[in-house]
Specification:
The complex is a heterodimer of chains A (116) and B (115).
Chain A lengths: L3 E2 L4 E5 L4 E3 L2 E2 L7 E7 L6 E7 L7 E2 L2 E6 L4 E6 L8 E9 L4 E6 L3 E6 L1
Parallel strand pairs in A: 2-12
Antiparallel strand pairs in A: 1-4, 3-9, 5-6, 5-10, 7-8, 8-9, 10-11, 10-12
Chain B lengths: L4 E3 L2 E4 L5 E6 L6 E7 L6 E7 L2 E5 L6 E5 L5 E5 L8 E8 L10 E2 L3 E5 L1
Parallel strand pairs in B: 2-11
Antiparallel strand pairs in B: 1-3, 3-8, 4-5, 4-9, 5-6, 7-8, 9-10, 9-11
Chain lengths: 116, 115
Amino acid sequence: AQKVTQAQTEISVVEKEDVTLDCVYETRDTTYYLFWYKQPPSGELVFLIRRNSFDEQNEISGRYSWNFQKSTSSFNFTITASQVVDSAVYFCALSEPLSGYSTLTFGKGTMLLVSP
Amino acid sequence: DAGVTQSPTHLIKTRGQQVTLRCSPKSGHDTVSWYQQALGQGPQFIFQYYEEEERQRGNFPDRFSGHQFPNYSSELNVNALLLGDSALYLCASSLWEDRSNQPQHFGDGTRLSIL
């Protein structure tokens, strides 16, 4: 089974719409870290947000917000008032240091297309 | 403050050849990880280097090897190239002590095409 599942392959929205990207993860560790990265066409992975497993407080940072729910193993990411520049592939990733696997396990990504 | 730099940007090889990709970590970082990203897929972890030693390895054959130099830069070598090795190869750097809980910094990648 995949450790990180991003069921949405591609999402298309019109500018100014809100959009939520889904991420479901699987781990047996009690301590783990979740990340969201953005990959524009240039290829570089850009870090967006991080959440650790012992802090379920959801936050808002500018147009970005996230909803972390351990009970459902989900770590969803929302962009409010989307813009054309938000068009990219978004990856959810998991780090499990207690398992000795401190590197990142990525989902397959969700391509977001924001049209004017 | 220089970020992660990778070279070359693009590379075209033929089956059976060997290739070397290079990475310089972000200033102040001592740990380098390599990822392979096939078209339409998420990055997959290849291996991680710290103190010039391979510390972790993903599910990749030993055709994939690496090296880290005293200045923390790193090389990824792939022997006996296969068509399936065509991918974007990403290098990421971090501090060893923060490698699991802090975001890794990625370079722009090297796009390798095998003909």
